[in-house]
Amino acid sequence: MGSKYISPALRQEVHERAGNCCEYCYAQLGFSPDPFNAEHILPVSKGGKTVSDNLSLACFGCNNAKGTATTAVDPLTGQMVALYHPRQQQWSDHFRWNSTCTNIIGISPHGRATVACLKLNRSGLTNLRRILYEANAHPPVNQA
After folding, report:
1. Is the pLDDT of residue 10 over 60?
2. Rounded to the nearest 5°, which phi and psi values hold at 55?
């Protein structure tokens, strides 16, 4: 089993690579009252390693909703599929914004399952997105 310890240098790399945005819901750290975590995409409990390619930056809400999940049900097909993997997949291949950039729409089985499992359209997020969008501060400039 791998170590859960993430060195300060590796944690900084994860934050910089993500542009201080959650790699799932694109919440921006600068507008969040909660800290973000370097999250194991494949959990240590399932054999994941504490290496750059297995870490993503996740907001408190996404990290808690994901937990140790690596799969979820695609609500459209009812099939169990792998969750979106930020190191191996492009966000824009699996998600898009609605017209007001308040809701994330899953456009693939991975995307739909991830939207449902991680609750990417939590009410607090959609409210914040609306305000930030009206202030021209959302979606983030660094979005994939």
Report:
1. yes
2. -120, 140
Residues 57-100: tens digit of each pLDDT: 999 999 999 999 999 999 999 999 999 999 999 999 999 999 99
Name, in order, each residue with C-beta under 8 angstroms of 64's C-beta and a sequence gap of 6 or more: none
Residue 1 confidence (pLDDT): 42
Beta strand 95-97 with 80-82 is unpaired
Q: What are phi and psi of 93, to 5 degrees?
A: -80, -15
Tell me the DSSP string of the chain.
-------HHHHHHHHHHHTTB-TTT--BGGG-SS--EEEESS-GGGT--SSGGGEEEE-HHHHHHHTT--EEE-TTT--EEEPP-TTTS-GGGTEEE-TTSSSEEE-SHHHHHHHHHHTTT-HHHHHHHHHHHHTT--S-TT--
Assigned token pair, 137: 């501060």
Query: What is the distance between the alpha carbons of residues 12 and 73, in angstroms, rounded to a whole number?
Result: 33
Q: What token pair was written down for 108?
A: 């693939």
